[in-house]
């Protein structure tokens, strides 16, 4: 006679999650100075404004597609110490270089995220951790990107947008002369693609949205990757269209349009417009992600029963 494993009682499950909650509360209290500094960075810098939404999205992902928290789970004794060691090492280096800002703050926040992951692997166990692995990994977006990385990404998008805008100018009827990589001489005005025109903030926001949407709506890893990587060319094309639109306004209405609302505050209009091809791609990926073989098998099974 087979011996079935005893199921975990409600009291044991409650104790398991209570321990994890206390661990997260303790870590949050210990890291509160760095978290307060992170909140200031998110409020003061436009690029990092998405950080406040990261824990909200992570909790929503757990609620939508999280594991069954009633499953019997044992501590993941290999992963939990590894994450704890990584978090401790990052904390040590972050304190050594100065945690109040820059690279040091990034290391300290990474340490906080790694230790939360370690606590989840230990207190919630292997099965629950695997089920909530993506939302836990999503918390890495709490880590602010160091300034050199942000500057490098900004420069890359800036030059790519300018190059794509140059192609758009060639396809349009505007007489234009390109001087260097970033300047376009038009009748009555010269437009320079500044770092602010890189669209890095909206591209980062859409990239985070693509990861969450792929996790919720798609099952295939490669389709999730396609959706996320499509954000890069989509962002570049969006910036190029914005540059072309502003150039058209300056030539056909007047050079004063360079100081218009659509230039300084109209980024959200082009961001909303870029959601149309993004949602169309998501729709196509969701349709192709369905499994015809399973549906046909089920149909055959029903047919055989009739």
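^ structure tokens above, recovered residues below v
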């Amino acid at each position: 006679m087979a011996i079935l494993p005893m199921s975990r009682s409600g009291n044991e499950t409650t104790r398991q999650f209570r321990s994890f909650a206390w661990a997260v509360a303790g870590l949050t209290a210990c890291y509160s100075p760095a978290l307060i500094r992170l909140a200031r960075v998110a409020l003061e810098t436009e690029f990092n404004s998405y950080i406040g939404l990261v824990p909200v999205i992570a909790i929503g992902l757990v609620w939508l597609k999280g594991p069954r928290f009633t499953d019997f789970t044992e501590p993941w004794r290999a992963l939990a110490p590894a994450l704890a060691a990584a978090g401790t090492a990052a904390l040590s280096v972050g304190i050594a270089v100065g945690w109040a800002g820059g690279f040091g703050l990034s290391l300290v926040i990474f340490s906080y995220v790694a230790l939360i992951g370690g606590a989840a692997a230990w207190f919630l166990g292997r099965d629950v951790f695997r089920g909530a692995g993506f939302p836990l990994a999503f918390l890495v977006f709490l880590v602010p990107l160091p300034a050199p990385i942000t500057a490098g990404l900004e420069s890359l998008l800036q030059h790519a947008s300018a190059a794509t805008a140059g192609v758009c100018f060639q396809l349009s009827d505007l007489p234009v002369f390109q001087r260097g990589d970033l300047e376009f001489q038009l009748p009555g005005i010269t437009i320079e693609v500044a770092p602010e025109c890189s669209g890095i903030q909206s591209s980062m926001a859409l990239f985070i949205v693509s990861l969450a949407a792929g996790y919720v709506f798609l099952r295939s890893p490669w389709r999730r990757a396609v959706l996320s990587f499509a954000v890069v060319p989509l962002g570049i094309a969006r910036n190029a269209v914005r540059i072309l639109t502003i150039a058209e306004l300056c030539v056909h209405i007047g050079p004063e349009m360079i100081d218009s609302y659509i230039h300084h505050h109209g980024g959200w209009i082009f961001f909303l417009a870029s959601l149309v091809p993004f949602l169309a791609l998501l729709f196509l990926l969701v349709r192709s992600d369905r499994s015809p073989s399973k549906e046909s098998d089920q149909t055959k099974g029903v047919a055989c029963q009739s």
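Residues 1-7, 294-306 have pLDDT under 50 and may be disordered.
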